[in-house]
């Protein structure tokens, strides 16, 4: 499913125009990105939690040369699905 398909689904399920559904989806995505970038967690009941996680510095290996290298610490976005979401995907 791509963005267009998702917008059409939202429009149909929420009885909105596609323009309204697209605006709602954009607002949701922008809000989640802004909150997570600001260090907050975003929890959507029944769906999951978006958050940022700190990755510590570590030693890695260049796969082409085999040479060891230092990988800097970083912050990465993460998603933890809710139990209901996991069960739906698992088919339970």
Principal-axis shape equals: elongated
Largest sheet: 3 strands, antiparallel
- Please state the second-level CATH architecture of the largest domain: Irregular
The CATH class name of the largest domain reads Few Secondary Structures
Biggest sheet, strands in spatial order?
A: 1-2-5
Contiguous uncertain segments of 5+ residues:
none
Please report the number of helical segments. Answer: 3
What string gives the helices and strands in order? HHEEEEEH
* CATH homologous superfamily label of the largest domain: IHF-like DNA-binding proteins
How many domains is the backbone divided into? 2
Over the alpha carbons, how many angstroms does the gyration radius reach? 19 Å
Quick check: average pLDDT?
Answer: 96
- The rounded distance between the terminal residues' Cα atoms is 22 Å
Backbone structural class: alpha+beta
Strand content: 25-35%
The helix fraction, in percent, is: 40-55%
Number of strands: 5
* CATH fold descriptor of the largest domain: HU Protein, Chain A
InterPro entries: Hist_DNA-bd, Histone-like_DNA-bd_CS, IHF-like_DNA-bd_dom_sf
Pfam families: Bac_DNA_binding
Keywords: DNA-binding
GO molecular function: DNA binding; structural constituent of chromatin
